[in-house]
């Protein structure tokens, strides 16, 4: 498998996980496999909770906004990404993270909004920057570890003032980079943890350890640490794309985002051909604030190709 195929797997895999997990958000553990006991049986892209079958949520919508900025600007243009986020947030998306919404609508300039929110709230380590990182991870992978992790931190900082969120997003970018190279992401993890900012290294070392289980999480999985740790656990504990995403959704809680992160990793690792066609066929990404556009598999695949080129 070449890096272009793996890049497509990351982008599509993340979107599929998001859409598959959305109807189960805030639900209990095990809800998915209770409803769909046998892997491969079909009908899983079921919709519900306000979501149509196959409809991707804010995770993928924001990932597409980042991707289109990177491709149209030809560089990392942070004010442009922030402006696209603001246009989207002002167009009544079906879902938007509480913290992200506050930062994008508080009237502050792009380079202060998240920092001021963090100063006031003191809580900004949500998974909302990690959830949207599949596209930027593909785009910056060619630049090497420092460049891709730095880009992840800067894009995360647009909406998240807490460095914990930057570091988790940076770890995800680097995991995708090594996977696109054809390396083993789980084997690379100890080295990646060494690249985390020293203040945040111990907590990431804990949730990314080979013997960590989501049951040991000390926060809900809407927080960045257990979200990333759970996605890595789902990859480690299973042997294929479908099982990895099922395991992620079965954890309950913030199911769309944990499955989006898992799907990005598993899609890059196992490749796009392992993502069930019955999941990609109904997949669609509405883009509020972008003239009513809706991206489907061909457009997402094209986006991934251009990001990887
Ligand atoms: Mg979502």
UniProtKB/TrEMBL annotation:
Pfam family for this entry, one: ADP_ribosyl_GH
GO MF entries: hydrolase activity; metal ion binding
Cofactor(s), names only, from the UniProt record: Mg(2+)
SUPFAM superfamilies: ADP-ribosylglycohydrolase
Keywords: Hydrolase, Magnesium, Metal-binding
Protein name (Swiss-Prot/TrEMBL): Ribosylglycohydrolase
UniProt keyword annotation of Metal-binding present: yes
Transmembrane annotation, as ranges: none
InterPro entries cross-referenced by the UniProt entry: ADP-ribosylglycohydrolase, Ribosyl_crysJ1, Ribosyl_crysJ1_sf
Cofactor binding remark: Binds 2 magnesium ions per subunit.
Protein's organism: Streptomyces scopuliridis RB72
């Amino acid at each position: 498998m070449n890096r272009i195929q793996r890049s497509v797997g990351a982008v599509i895999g993340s979107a599929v996980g998001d859409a598959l997990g959305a109807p189960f958000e805030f639900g209990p553990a095990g809800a998915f496999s209770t409803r769909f006991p046998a892997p491969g049986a079909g009908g899983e892209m079921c919709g519900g909770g306000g979501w149509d079958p196959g409809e991707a949520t804010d995770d993928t919508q924001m990932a597409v906004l980042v991707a289109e900025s990177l491709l149209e600007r030809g560089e990392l243009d942070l004010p442009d990404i922030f402006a696209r986020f603001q246009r989207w947030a002002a167009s009544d998306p079906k879902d938007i993270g509480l913290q992200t919404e506050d930062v994008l609508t508080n009237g502050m300039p792009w380079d202060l909004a998240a920092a001021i929110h963090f100063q006031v709230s003191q809580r900004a380590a949500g998974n909302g920057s990690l959830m949207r990182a599949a596209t930027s991870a593909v785009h910056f992978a060619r630049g090497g570890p420092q460049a891709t992790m730095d880009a992840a931190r800067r894009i995360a900082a647009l909406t998240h003032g807490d460095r914990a969120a930057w570091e988790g997003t940076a770890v995800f970018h680097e995991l995708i980079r090594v996977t696109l190279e054809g390396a083993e992401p789980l084997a690379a993890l100890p080295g990646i943890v060494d690249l985390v900012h020293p203040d945040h290294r111990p907590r990431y070392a804990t949730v990314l350890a080979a013997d960590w289980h989501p049951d040991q999480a000390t926060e809900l999985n809407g927080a960045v640490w257990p979200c990333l740790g759970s996605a890595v656990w789902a990859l480690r504990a299973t042997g294929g794309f479908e099982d990895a995403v099922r395991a992620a959704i079965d954890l309950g809680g913030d199911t769309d985002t944990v499955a989006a992160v898992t799907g990005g990793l598993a899609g890059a690792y196992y490749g796009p051909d392992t993502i069930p066609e019955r999941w990609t066929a109904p997949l669609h990404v509405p883009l509020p604030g972008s003239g009513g556009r809706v991206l489907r598999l061909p457009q997402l695949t094209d986006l991934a190709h251009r990001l990887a080129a």
